[in-house]
Amino acid sequence: MAHNSPYLLKPASVRSVMLRVAAALLPGIAAYVYFFGAAILVQLALASATALAGEAAILALRRKPVWLFVSDGSALVTAWLIALTFPPVVPWWLTVTATLFAIVVVKQLYGGLGQNPFNPAMAAFALMIVAYPLLMSQWPAAGFADFHTQLGLIFGERALDGITMATPLDALRTALHSEENRATVAAVIAQGASFGTLGGKGWEWIAAGYLLGGLWLLQQRIVTWHMPLAFLAALGLIAGVFHLINGDQFATPLFHVFSGGALLGAFFIVTDPVSGATTPRGKLIFAAGIGLLTWVIRTWGAYPDGIAFAVLLMNIAVPLIDMHTQPPVFGHKKGDGA
Amino acid sequence: MLRALFKFNGGVKPQTHKLDSVRESIGQIPLPAELVIPLHQSIGGTPRPLVKAGEKVFKGQMIGAADGNVSAAVHASTSGTVKAVEMRTMAHSSGLGTLCVVIEPDGEEAWIETRPVAWRSLPAGEVRDILRDAGIVGLGGAVFPSHLKVQGSRSTKFKTLIINGAECEPFITCDDMQMRERPAGVLRGAAILRDLLQAEEVLIGIEDNKPEAIASMRAAVANLGDTARDIQIVPIPTRYPAGGAKQLIRVLTGIEVPHGRRSTDYGVQCFNSGTAYAIHEALEFGRPLISRIVTVAGNVEAPRNYEILFGTPMRHAIAPTRAKPDSDRVIMGGPMMGFAMPNPDVPVIKATNCILVGSPALFPPPEPEMPCIRCGECAKACPADLQPFELYWFSRAKQFGKAQEYALFDCIECGCCAYVCPSHIPLVDYYRFAKSEIWDREREKAAADAARERYEFRLAREEREKQEKAAKLAAKAAETRAKLAAEAAATAAEDDPKKALIAAALARAQAQKAEIQPDNIEQLTPAQQAEVAEIEARRAQIREIAHTPPENKP
Ligand code: SF4
Ligand code: SF4
């Protein structure tokens, strides 16, 4: 059938959007490999293969055009986010299960591309950290980059002693919560081998890599400034306020921004269009909500990082946020007397 | 002459494709073998045919008289013989028929007698009638009868007249060429409108990708001296759809006219530059609107602008530009908002600003439609500040009430959203579908209301008759019983309340009718009406199929 106007279309596609998002992750991944070895590449490959195969299988079952959707790149981005938010030395089956859960249950069972109310990668992260809290907390120490040992951890027996350690966020939270509350932020950081200048040793460089990629996405107009800024500002602001009130008990805003998944989250997770708010004001509220919740969960929660839960909680609120933040239509702005 | 300009949100910058059709001057096209002039070429009522088959007509002779005030007359575009007044395929993708006057030209081009109108000494109402009878309608594509726009608002003082020379759609250059070659006519038209509307200032907005038109218009302003007083040529940034009336008003004055409000309520009125020229022709020379400049472009060897008589078959107009062999369709209008024609033989009409020849290479079929990923690109591009993906969702789910709540009717169908959508969703198709469905429902409802109105009127009449009967009986009784005469008089006096009752019923029905017209279904363009008619036809077909006994089915 002949199509109707507009006959001119911008050369844009879901695929090109997704592939550029994936490309923007590359600087962060490069830093990751540099500081923590090639294990992450194995995980990325595992997750990608699982996501594509899982998506193809279920598309075939749902009698949808398999190649059209598998090649749209969205499954790939989800897979990469899973690999990048999980510890790089989790056993292979954990990555595979998590990816299948994200693609099959969270994405496809809700109707596939564009239909899922929850961020698939974050739903998978939340599920796995609840199901396997120990495996999900074993992060390698910086400088530990022996590929052979890493492969052993991923595919074989697990002998983790001395190889992994708590992440900076985790270390800080555990220390502050125990020892009769006598530890201070400064003391913990001074003692801990895992701390760097801004965040965790090595991790801060990876975060910088994500920041670089994120800025490129901004320049490419794939993400708007609203979400990253609101998320980081909210996280930094609440961290700053509490740090000012009690610097011994609460880490600095910079530490929060450069630790854990904050910068990855700011540009790549919070900004997931499908499960996020869509109006300009809604985006600000949505992302700021995630920032606040992230800090709360990091500070008082039981898990190493709070972004996943914060994102899922705000995903629930999206319909409400969108409904109440509809921008004024042309000519119907306040003060127009219309 | 720097003016502070304003911005509208959204908009896109597609490739303009304008350079090829401005190389040569505005051309003429030989007379075709026959001219097919549709009577219905503007918003509003279909003009009544004034001629019959066999009649001789002169060039410029009125052949269709405006039907009521919301309508505009139609004229013979050349002299010749009326061959028929019959249904012919209209210039709309539906391929529906419309009543046309078919003229066989005699080649004489013999004009009716024309004489300048002494419009300055005529009352405003009379000037409006003259414009209506000269068939002047908006030539930017909206074909709204211009005479209805030549009056201010009762509540607001009129300030700014805007002449729209933005011409933002790709490929189209007819206004550009007219402003280059005939700037004085456009300016004189603008001056007439300025005086009719008593505007304080006239702003002629031209996109800054037309430096030649801007220069030519500026030179003409200087030449015309006092005639062109208070007229300013304002270059505006090139961004589609800067030529949308509301967008242009916004850019030039900062005022946002909401949907459903007249711009005159804000002291502004906007005319297309071609319309200004036509008004000048009509009043200064007494020539009605019988032709217009049309850009013939797209998949042709020699794109160019031509002055084309209404009724000329598009095929005839395309011929001198030599369509390339792989051409597969003819589009009326630009690539953003145009419509594919059912065949190349449909006539050029007042709404035809561009005949765009398409091919699979020039306008490739869109890639497969993907689900919406809620990326918000469409919302960023929407000049009406809508959330197109929400409208898409509601239209698709046939939640028309919701779609209206999200301001479906504020959508100007500019196509920016579909242009940017990475999922290649034909968004505007969904809005057109939803709008036509809603219009059709409104119409059905209006018909039902009219029926109810008749019913209520009958009830009221029966009630009145009953009471009259009672009154007569009472009168009889009064006759027989003379002492009750006073009572009979009282009953007769009840006649007035009865009338009031009927009036109240009528008023109620009318109020209801007014209520159900949030988007005036009487002011649709012929194209929009065709879409509604298409839906009607589809439904009728469905009904027919449903009512056909099974054994009759093929
Ligand atoms: S541009 Fe297309 S995919 Fe993106 S939100 Fe709009 S309709 Fe959905
Ligand atoms: S077609 Fe309608 S919804 Fe789409 S961009 Fe234009 S005005 Fe907005």
Q: How would you describe what is shown here?
A:
- The complex is a heterodimer of chains A (about 350) and B (about 550).
- With about 350 residues, chain A is mainly α.
- Chain A folds into two domains: about 150 residues, no CATH class; about 130 residues, no CATH class.
- Chain A is globular, with a radius of gyration of 21 Å.
- The model of chain A has no long low-confidence stretch (mean pLDDT about 85).
- Chain B is an alpha/beta fold and about 550 residues long.
- Chain B has three domains: about 200 residues, NADH-ubiquinone oxidoreductase 51kDa subunit (Rossmann fold), CATH 3.40.50.11540; about 160 residues, no CATH class; about 110 residues, Fumarate Reductase Iron-sulfur Protein, Chain B, domain 2.
- Chain B has 15 helices and 17 strands.
- In chain B, a hairpin with a 7-residue loop joins strand 7 and strand 8.
- In chain B, helix 3 crosses helix 6 and helix 12 packs antiparallel against helix 14.
- The radius of gyration of chain B is 27 Å and the shape is globular.
- The C terminus of chain B is likely disordered.
- Chains A and B meet through helix 1 of A and strand 16, helix 8, helix 11 and helix 12 of B.
- Bound molecules: iron/sulfur cluster (2 copies).
- The site of one iron/sulfur cluster has 16 residues of chain B, from helix 8 and helix 9.
